[in-house]
Write a structure and sequence with these properties.
The radius of gyration is 37 Å and the shape is elongated. 18% of the residues are buried. The chain is mainly alpha-helical. Helix 3 packs antiparallel against helix 4, helix 3 runs parallel beside helix 5 and helix 5 runs antiparallel to helix 6. It is built from six helices and two strands; from the N terminus they run ββαααααα. It has two domains: 53 residues, no CATH class; 113 residues, no CATH class. The longest helix is centred in the middle third of the chain and has 45 residues. A two-stranded antiparallel ribbon has the order 1-2. Helix content is 64%, strand content 4%.
Length: 193
């Protein structure tokens, strides 16, 4: 083992920044365990960096299998929640249209039976809509709720109360249907369904 002097290659007086325990061995610099800096110490991370560095990812068969199974269960749960939300939105639409129909039948809230039906239907409507809004975005839920509700009330008005729509009103209903379809398509593309 040879020690170099003032030639800048290392050693106690060298310019490489090595400490007293760094030595040139066979053209390569070696560092003793208690030694100072130098090229050998530059390749090692500080103890603080080792503690703060994120651990290497663990790839164990059972861990990976459990992670995959959990992801599938989570996707299935998410799909069930989405179906339940759309079912709640359908309940909100039907009960809202029923409440509006009862409102027309109540003769200005002067008849007791239809007035009670108005209150109950709107209560069910808003509770169901609130449940649907936990999953469905507000803009989508409200557009579908109001659009389909308008179509349903128009149909009920035509069948029950003999309120016929003129051609311009039919165009308006068709535009509502087109708007609801566009919103549905856009929301599905945004979710990746």
């Amino acid at each position: 083992m040879t020690e170099t002097g003032k030639d800048g290659a290392g050693g106690p007086e060298g310019g490489s920044g090595g400490g007293p325990d760094d030595r040139q061995v066979g053209g390569a610099q070696a560092s003793r365990p208690g030694g100072g800096g130098g090229a050998g110490a530059a390749g090692r991370a500080s103890p603080l960096a080792e503690v703060l560095a994120p651990p290497d990812p663990v790839h164990e068969p059972f861990v990976d299998l459990a992670r995959e199974a959990g992801a599938r269960l989570h996707d299935a749960s998410r799909a069930r929640r989405r179906w339940a939300a759309w079912l709640m939105l359908a309940v909100a639409i039907v009960s809202g249209a029923s409440g509006t129909t009862s409102l027309a039948a109540s003769a200005g809230l002067t008849r007791l039976g239809p007035t009670i039906a108005v209150v109950l239907c709107y209560l069910v409507c808003f509770v169901a809509l609130t449940r649907a809004l936990r999953v469905i975005p507000l803009s989508v839920a409200y557009a579908v709720w109001s659009g389909i509700g308008i179509m349903l009330v128009s149909a009920i008005g035509w069948v029950v109360f003999d309120q016929r729509l003129n051609p311009v009103e039919w165009v308006g209903v068709a535009l509502i249907v087109a708007g609801v379809v566009l919103i549905q398509l856009k929301s599905r593309v945004g979710r990746g369904d």
